[in-house]
C-alpha cells in the first residue's frame, strides 16, 4: 500500500477536531496523474457530479484531489454504514501529499476505513472505479468496532498552559501559587510529573499521557498541564476540556515538523488549547502577540488578556466586551475589569522572577500566571504570596534563567543558565545578561541547540549569539542531535556567526565543557550564559563543585543595581 504515508490515532482534541480523530497522510500521486476521463468517472462514483478535475499534474488537479479525497472518505463511510461523518482535508508543503482527518468512536473500524481509502487510491489508476470503491466500503463494514477513545473528562479544575516560550515557567508559577494557597497540586510538563512540587515520574509528559497521569493521582485538587505542540499533533490532548487555558506567545520554533511550516500554522495548533476551554471558564491570552490575541475568535470561554501596556487597543476591546485584563500600572501588577477601578495586586519589584521588572519575558509570564491563578479562583492574598516566594533558581524553576555567582582567580562573575531554545528565547536571555552586566564587563555565551530545527533557525541563533556576546563557545547536545552530526551543527552555527563578523569560536562536545572553557576566561563582573538543555544537572554540579552559589533575590537585586550604576 503506497498511498498511505501515515495513519495516526489522535486520542483527544486536536488540530482538526475537538474530539478524538484519525489523521491520514496520503500520497495522491495516483489521483493527480490519472487521465482526465478516469478522474471524472471517479468523481461521479463518489458523488461529485459536476467536477472539473483539470489536467494531470496541474494545480487544478491538486485542488480537485483534495475535494475528491474528502468525498471519498465520506462515501466509504456512508456505504459501510456510517450515515454522517465530518472530514477535514489539509494540503502540505509536499504537493503530492494531503492530510485527511475524521472523528472516531470505534478504534479498529476507524483505522480500517483509513486503510481502505488508501487502497482505493492505490488501485485507482488501473482499476474499475465502481468495483474498488464498493470493495473498500465492504471491507470497512466487515471490520470489528474496537475500543473507544481514552480521552478523560476531568473531575477537578484544570489549568492548561501552551505557547512557544514561557509555558514551563508560567505553569510552574501557577502550580506554586496554588500550593501556597494550600491545595494539593499535580503538574505535568516536559520534565515529568510533579505532585505537590515533588517529581514522581521523569520524562516528557507535555502530551496527553501527562494529563492522564496527573489526574490519576489520588487527592489532587488542581491539575496544571503544560501542553506542547508535539503532543497536540501526534496524539491529541488527553482531556475533553480545561477550566482555564493560557497561551503565552507564538514564535518560530519546531517549524518544518509534522506539517507545520509557518507561524500561522503553529498558532492554529496552539489555539486548540483555548478552543476546548469550557464556556464558563477563562481563556488567558497574550494581547501583545497578534496571533495569540486572534485566538479570541475561536474560544467559547470568557477572554482574559494580559499586556504590558494597560492602554493597548487589545485590552480596551476585551474590557468593552466584558472580559478582563492584567497589566502593569505604576510598577504594579494590576487587574482591570469593566466599569471598575484597577486592582493593584503586587509590585513588580517584589516578584523575584521579574528581576525588579528587568526581564520582559518574565514580566509577561507573571501577568499570565496571575491571570490564570485568579481565573481559577485562587484568592488575591495567595496569589501575592505565591508570586513573592517563587524564585528563579534550580529549586523553583530549573533550567529557566537560573543565576549563580562563581569565582575564579580573576574575580567574581555571574553564570546564567537557560533553555533558550529558539530566537526569542536567546534574545530574552541576552536581555537578562545585559541587565546584570556591570559597566565595561563582557558577555560570554555557550551556544547550542537541538538538531531538529530548521537550518535557517540554527544559523539565526549563531547571528544572535555573535551580535550579543563578546565571546562564544559552541557546546553540543549529544543526546539531542536528532539526525544531525556535530560537524553539521557547527557549520550552521558558524555560518550565522560569520555573517556578523565572529570567526574565532571554539567548539566542544558537551555543554559542560563549553561552560568550563568560558568560566576559565571570565573576569570580574562578566556574565557567562549557557544555553542548557542536555546537561542541566551536570552543569549545576559542576558549578557547585567550584564553589559557585545560586543567587537569592537580594543578590540578584544587588547585581541589577550594580549594572545600572546605582
From TrEMBL:
Stored InterPro entries: Mur-like_cat_sf (IPR036565), Mur_ligase_C (IPR004101), Mur_ligase_C_dom_sf (IPR036615), Mur_ligase_cen (IPR013221)
One Pfam family cited in the UniProt record for this chain: Mur_ligase_C
Gene3D superfamilies assigned to the protein according to its UniProt record, in alphabetical order: Mur ligase, C-terminal domain, Mur-like, catalytic domain
Domain annotation Mur ligase C-terminal: ranges: 399-531
Transmembrane segments: none
Mur ligase central domain span: 161-372
Source domain of life: Bacteria
An example Gene Ontology molecular-function term: ATP binding
Keyword annotations from UniProtKB, A to Z: Ligase
Record has Ligase as a keyword: yes
Cross-referenced SUPFAM superfamilies: MurD-like peptide ligases, catalytic domain, MurD-like peptide ligases, peptide-binding domain
Name the UniProt record assigns to this protein: Mur ligase
Organism of origin: Nocardioides agariphilus
Amino acid at each position: 500500500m503506497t498511498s498511505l504515508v501515515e495513519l495516526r490515532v489522535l486520542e483527544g482534541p486536536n488540530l482538526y477536531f475537538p474530539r478524538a480523530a484519525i489523521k491520514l497522510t496520503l500520497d495522491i500521486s495516483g489521483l493527480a496523474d490519472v487521465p482526465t476521463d478516469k478522474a471524472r468517472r471517479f468523481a461521479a462514483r463518489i458523488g461529485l457530479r459536476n467536477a472539473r478535475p483539470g489536467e494531470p499534474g496541474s494545480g487544478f488537479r491538486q485542488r480537485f484531489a483534495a475535494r475528491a479525497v474528502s468525498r471519498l472518505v465520506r462515501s466509504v463511510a456512508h456505504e459501510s454504514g456510517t450515515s454522517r461523518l465530518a472530514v477535514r482535508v489539509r494540503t502540505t508543503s509536499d504537493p503530492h501529499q494531503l492530510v485527511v482527518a475524521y472523528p472516531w468512536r470505534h478504534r479498529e473500524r476507524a483505522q480500517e476505513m483509513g486503510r481502505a481509502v488508501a487502497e482505493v487510491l492505490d488501485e485507482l489508476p488501473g482499476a474499475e472505479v465502481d468495483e474498488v470503491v464498493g470493495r473498500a466500503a465492504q471491507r470497512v463494514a466487515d471490520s470489528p468496532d474496537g475500543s473507544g477513545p481514552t480521552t478523560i473528562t476531568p473531575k477537578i479544575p484544570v489549568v492548561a498552559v501552551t505557547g512557544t516560550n514561557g509555558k514551563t515557567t508560567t505553569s510552574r508559577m501557577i502550580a506554586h501559587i496554588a500550593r501556597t494557597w494550600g491545595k494539593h497540586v499535580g503538574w505535568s510538563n516536559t520534565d515529568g510529573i510533579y505532585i505537590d512540587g515533588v517529581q514522581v515520574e521523569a520524562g516528557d509528559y507535555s502530551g496527553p499521557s501527562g494529563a492522564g497521569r496527573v489526574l490519576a493521582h489520588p487527592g489532587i485538587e488542581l491539575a496544571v498541564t503544560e501542553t506542547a505542540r508535539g503532543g497536540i499533533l501526534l496524539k491529541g490532548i488527553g482531556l475533553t476540556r480545561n477550566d482555564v487555558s493560557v497561551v503565552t506567545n507564538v514564535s518560530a520554533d519546531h517549524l518544518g515538523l509534522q506539517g507545520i511550516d509557518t507561524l500561522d500554522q503553529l498558532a492554529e495548533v496552539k489555539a486548540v488549547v483555548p478552543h476546548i476551554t469550557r464556556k464558563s471558564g477563562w481563556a488567558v491570552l497574550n494581547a501583545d502577540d497578534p496571533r495569540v490575541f486572534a485566538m479570541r475568535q475561536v474560544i467559547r470561554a470568557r477572554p482574559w488578556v494580559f499586556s504590558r501596556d494597560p492602554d493597548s487597543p487589545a485590552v480596551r476591546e476585551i474590557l468593552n466586551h466584558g472580559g478582563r485584563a492584567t497589566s502593569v500600572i505604576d510598577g504594579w501588577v494590576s487587574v482591570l475589569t469593566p466599569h471598575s477601578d484597577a486592582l493593584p495586586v503586587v509590585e513588580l519589584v517584589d516578584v523575584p522572577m521579574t528581576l525588579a521588572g528587568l526581564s520582559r519575558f518574565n514580566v509577561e509570564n507573571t501577568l499570565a500566571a496571575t491571570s490564570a491563578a485568579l481565573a481559577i479562583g485562587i484568592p488575591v492574598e495567595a496569589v501575592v504570596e505565591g508570586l513573592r516566594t517563587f524564585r528563579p533558581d534550580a529549586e523553583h524553576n530549573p533550567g529557566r534563567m537560573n543565576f549563580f555567582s562563581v569565582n575564579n582567580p580573576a574575580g567574581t562573575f555571574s553564570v546564567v543558565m537557560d533553555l533558550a531554545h529558539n530566537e526569542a528565547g536567546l534574545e530574552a536571555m541576552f536581555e537578562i545578561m545585559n541587565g546584570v552586566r556591570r559597566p565595561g564587563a563582557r558577555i560570554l555565551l555557550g551556544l547550542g541547540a537541538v538538531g531538529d530545527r530548521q537550518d535557517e533557525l540554527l544559523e539565526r541563533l549563531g547571528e544572535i549569539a555573535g551580535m550579543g556576546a563578546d565571546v562564544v563557545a559552541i557546546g553540543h547536545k549529544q543526546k539531542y542531535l536528532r539526525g544531525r552530526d556535530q560537524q553539521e551543527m557547527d557549520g550552521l552555527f558558524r555560518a550565522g556567526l560569520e555573517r556578523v563578523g565572529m570567526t574565532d569560536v571554539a567548539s566542544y562536545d558537551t555543554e559542560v565543557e563549553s561552560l568550563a572553557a568560558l568560566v576559565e576566561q571570565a573576569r570580574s563582573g562578566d556574565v557567562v550564559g549557557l544555553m542548557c538543555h542536555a546537561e542541566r544537572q551536570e552543569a549545576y554540579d559542576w558549578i557547585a563543585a567550584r564553589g559557585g552559589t545560586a543567587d537569592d533575590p537580594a543578590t540578584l537585586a544587588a547585581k541589577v543595581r550594580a549594572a545600572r550604576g546605582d
